[in-house]
Write a structure and sequence with these properties.
heterodimer; A: 237 residues; alpha+beta; 4-stranded antiparallel β-sheet; 4 strands; B: 185 residues; Arc Repressor Mutant, subunit A; 2 domains; 3-stranded antiparallel β-sheet; 8 helices; 6 strands; 15% strand
Chain lengths: 237, 185
């Protein structure tokens, strides 16, 4: 097999569980009675091949390799008579996980078979400009508008001649959580609202970083109707 | 008595159907029956229901290029899937398709919602950050809130856009998960 053929083959796996399912199917073995030694050997051959091709091998593949090896070693251990009754099959957990993954893989194929809008069926096309013309025109804004607004805000708030003693311990993830909670409750907040609550510089900066991070993760969106206008922030989606 | 028992007489029924057809035609998103009733407030609600039903039937019987479908709790005109190739040709673009990874992530969210990212990753056995972000961008899934457990993790669910994209009236129209489960001996 040429390396090219390998690459194409390997590219189709959606993850370690998918590879494992493929091997089970290829070897025509029973998913409830997986020949662990055989499958583990083949699995490791596959990920070796992926590594030798310098494919970016996700860590999850290695984790499953370790799990397989562990199961294999447990199956080699002799089981004492009194233990036998309650001793569970070392493969049980993995089989459960595989079956669940398989169900959702099928469900994903099921979704793909549906009549998808824009692929299989179509609705009418609407010219966006003609619709909602009387609505307030808002546009989504990016990082630069936010930075500019932050610069203006911090100029108004910050007093550099005062030294700050850091009493309030605050982390970026705390502030991210607080902002998401607030937006969930209020629906929409202005940028000034969010930063305005920040009594000190540290909090102000963390608030700003939190907003940037949330925008990057596309959890929130920011809008503005005119340049230098009020920036509104709301949850995306 | 049949479910749509308001026997409207000829011309009046035709007029009503024409009006409803028009309202649905000019609406950008699926038009809810309640909205139609709100617009046509002088007309008996039962008459409206039976006119909608008759319209759906007419398109069904005609079996042409356009059908009236019930989608995301409303009514919308949709093309027949038999004509997809020509529409794509007209638009000169290939349809945007979701990757298999995105589809798997979407399937877990659709069936398990509200669901945490960690749960999706447990099912799929891989990191799902990328596919999750793509689905959020396409507005197929959204953040539904936070789970009341330590760490208050974000939970995800599907959107109205998801229903519209997959032509579903509601989530209960999804095939049941057991249909995908392997038959156990």
């Amino acid at each position: 097999m040429t390396s090219e053929a390998y690459e194409i083959k390997l590219d189709i796996f959606e993850g370690p569980l998918d590879l494992l399912l493929y091997l089970i199917k290829k070897n025509e073995v029973d998913i409830y009675d997986i020949p662990i030694a055989l499958i583990t050997r083949q699995y490791i051959q596959y990920i070796d091949a992926m590594q030798s091709l310098n494919l970016d091998l996700a860590g999850e593949y290695l984790v499953l390799a370790a799990t397989l090896t562990h199961i294999k070693s447990r199956m080699l251990l002799p089981v004492s008579d009194e233990d036998e009754a309650e001793e569970e099959d070392p493969r049980e957990e993995l089989v459960k996980q595989l079956l669940e993954y398989k169900t959702f893989k099928e469900a994903a194929l099921g979704l793909d078979r549906m009549k998808i809008l824009g692929r299989d069926v179509f609705g009418r096309d609407y010219a966006e400009d003609d619709l909602g013309a009387d609505e307030q025109i808002i546009r989504e804004i990016g990082i630069f508008e936010l930075v500019e607004a932050f610069r203006r805000m911090s100029r108004d708030t910050g007093r550099s001649d005062l030294m700050e003693i850091d009493i309030e311990k605050i982390s970026l993830s705390d502030r991210i959580n607080e902002i998401v909670d607030e937006l969930e409750k209020m629906g929409e907040r202005t940028f000034t609202d969010l930063l305005g609550e920040s009594s000190n510089r540290r909090r102000l900066i963390y608030t700003f970083l939190a907003i940037l991070e949330l925008m990057k993760l596309r959890i929130i969106k920011a809008y503005q109707s005119v340049p230098y206008g009020t920036i509104r922030v709301c949850l995306a989606g | 008595m049949e479910p749509y028992g308001y026997a409207l007489r000829g011309e009046r029924m035709d007029n009503l159907k024409s009006v409803i057809e028009t309202l649905i035609f000019v609406s950008e998103t699926p038009l809810a029956e309640a909205k139609i009733k709100e617009v046509l407030q002088d007309i008996h609600e039962g008459e409206i229901s039976s006119a909608i039903h008759a319209l759906v039937q007419e398109y069904e019987q005609r079996n042409g290029g356009i059908f009236l479908r019930k989608i995301a709790g409303g009514y919308q005109f949709r093309t027949s899937e038999d004509t997809a190739l020509w529409v794509q040709k007209l638009r000169g673009q290939k349809p945007a398709v979701l990757s298999a990874a995105a589809m798997e992530t979407l399937a877990v969210i659709a069936y398990r919602q509200p669901v945490m990212k960690a749960d999706i990753e447990k099912v799929r056995g891989v990191d799902v950050s990328g596919s999750l972000r793509g689905l959020l961008e396409k507005n197929l899934v959204r953040i539904m809130g936070r789970k009341n457990v330590p760490g208050r993790p974000i939970i995800y669910g599907t959107t109205r856009i998801f229903l519209e994209t997959f032509g579903l009236n509601s989530l209960s129209d999804l095939p049941t998960l057991s249909e995908f489960k392997e038959l156990e001996e």
